[in-house]
Amino acid sequence: MSAEVEETLKRIQTHKGVIGTIVVNAEGNTTLITSTKVDYAGLLHQLTMKARSTVRDLDPQNDLTFLRIRSKKHEIMVAPDKEYLLIVIQNPSE
Amino acid sequence: MEIVHVYTKKRNEFGRQCNFSDRPAELHVDILPDPSLASNFIERDPCDIPIQCTQEMSEHEVNTERFESDTRGINHVEGGWPKDVNPQEMEQTIRFRKKVEKDEHYFSTIMQLGSNMEHCIKQNNAINIYQEYFEEEEVVEESEEQPSAKTINVFRDPNEIKRTATCLSWHPDGSCKLAVAYSSLGFQNISPDMSYDSYIWDIESPNKPEMTLKPVSLLVCLEYNPKDSHILVGGSYNGQIAYWDTRKGSQPVEMSTIEHSHRDPVYKVIWLQSKTGTDTFSASTDGQVLWWDIRKMSEPTERLVLDPNKKGNLDNALGAISLEFETTMPTKFMVGTEQGLVVSCNRKAKTPAEKIVCTYSGHHGPIYALQRNPFFPKNFLTVADWTARIWSEDIKESSIMWTKYHMAYLSDGCWSPVRPSVFFTVKMDGTLDVWDFLFKQNDPTLSLKVCDEALYSLRVQDNGRFLACGSQLGTATLLEISPGLCTLQRNEKALATAMFERETKREKILEARHREMRLKERSRSEQSKDEDTKEGDGEESVEELATRTEAEFYEIVEAELKKRAKEQEKKFLFDIRCQGCIHLEGAGEEVRILFQIYSRMTQLTIE
Fold this sequence. Notes:
The structure holds 2 protein chains of 2 kinds.
Chain A: H1 2-13, E1 18-25, E2 30-34, H2 39-58, E3 67-70, E4 75-80, E5 84-90
Antiparallel strand pairs in A: 1-2, 1-5, 3-4, 4-5
Chain B: H1 90-101, H2 104-126, E1 149-155, E2 164-170, E3 177-183, E4 198-202, E5 211-213, E6 219-224, E7 231-236, E8 241-245, E9 254-255, E10 266-271, E11 279-284, E12 288-293, E13 302-305, E14 320-325, E15 332-337, E16 342-346, H3 352-355, E17 356-360, E18 367-372, E19 379-384, E20 387-392, E21 401-402, E22 410-415, E23 422-427, E24 431-436, E25 446-449, E26 455-460, E27 466-471, E28 476-481, H4 492-531, H5 542-566, E29 573-578, E30 582-587, H6 589-606
Antiparallel strand pairs in B: 1-28, 2-3, 3-4, 4-5, 6-7, 7-8, 8-9, 10-11, 11-12, 12-13, 14-15, 15-16, 16-17, 18-19, 19-20, 20-21, 22-23, 23-24, 24-25, 26-27, 27-28, 29-30
GO biological process, one term (chain A): microtubule-based movement
Main location (chain A): cytoplasm
Domain Roadblock/LAMTOR2 (chain A): 5-90
């Protein structure tokens, strides 16, 4: 099973433009860091929590499925789940 | 139907007490329904009757006391590890990680999230979702909107006793901070409780100033160093210059010595262009312009006395109220004086006499603002008395363009740094005027009442979008002007150039004509002097002159009266321009005569 996980993550990492991948657990500590700074984990975790609570405040039956932050330099994509967060930083093709 | 009741009482029974008695009910009137009346009415169908059944509410307003809020942030660096795991120990963390990775839940989650993520990544790689498709068709929308200005923030003087905000200076990079100098310019208006502090405000927080500057005496003017944004120089009411470093605190780093400073309040201080970035110069109403190097404040590096006779005599000197320095022309600078003259000076002249190059006269009062147009450095704006004038360097006799005389005194003005034809002025009745002389010349394009008290200072930010004005009660107001007034229009530079040239040419022609006329007068009076041999050396005394002109006047009046008796009503209007200031319309002959005499007298007395 873990091989599949490894394979999936590796596939993600080898996509064009991907700079790094992080998996964060519910408490906010990282379980898998690949060539990116630790800062992302804590900050993005808080931001995702905030985004999720905003979505649910607006409509209690709604929930956050995906969060994308596009900045000048790159794009941060966060796929949230109840317990884990998958974060990918990509440099989108211009 | 009339129903009448008659009550009768005998006269001798008046005043008697009333004895009430019971009696049975009596039918007085019985009105039966009359169906014939129904024909006067029409039945209404349908009937609209609104009914409301709600709770009764009352409206109240409550305003809470100001709540001071502060923003803080926390950065989560490392944490969230369960109790038994010590984050410092590498082994433990790795073990924990491995344990989590084996979790079932972990697998399924990651697979699912992974596929989601891949989808988005591929999306990103496939197409740029933020691509501008219609970039070239950047519509140059000539905003048909009305020019407007909006107040963004108001910064009030936190002290009890309010002082005037006399000078404002924007922070050189980014313009997120505003330094305001507070002082009291009224004569002997300073009470002992008045605080001497001046403040640096952060634009975003109007409740509390970001930093306080504590000088020894009230600061009249304050400037940020354009090269080093931590350094500010200020001129104070007692004539001293001081400079601050914001990294070092509120006290001035160094102050100039009293013996060598100005003797009057320092009204303007400007940073100069130099390699070290530490040179400034200051002007004051004591008639001196002093140059300083802030590294050595004990003595000014250079001194200039504004003596119009170029003799360096301090008693004759004109008091300076404003200074102008343009970094593109580092050897020239201009001084605006209390007497209404603008003096243009050359810094590199060898002798003090040559320093003062020329003067421009035309204002009636102290020149509060003086600035060159950032796009056309040959033209400069002066704001004084009740007008604002635009001058050209070549024409020394008068300004090339001027506004009408306003009802209130103008106290400050400046050009817009982005549009060559726009400038701003503030008045003592609290209004801000925005002038665009390519659009309208007689009136300001936009006139806005900022506050009820007088406005004393004005400063535009470098992007031309924001401006700050300071008032008499120490309130600095930050305004944003509409984009139409701060974006360069299509042909603006060309049109402004054309306008300046045209006005300059017109003034040149007028100047030439004036000179011609004066020359003619001079030659005529020379001739008449030669004829009058009685006069001797040619210096006429005033009395003789007066009697002669009086005699001439009466002669002419008599001759004219005779002519008039023959002619009928002949009214004609004419213009007389006398020395560029007075502009009169007159009807009739007598006025013309008086002015002939007047102009002749003035011509002769000048010589």
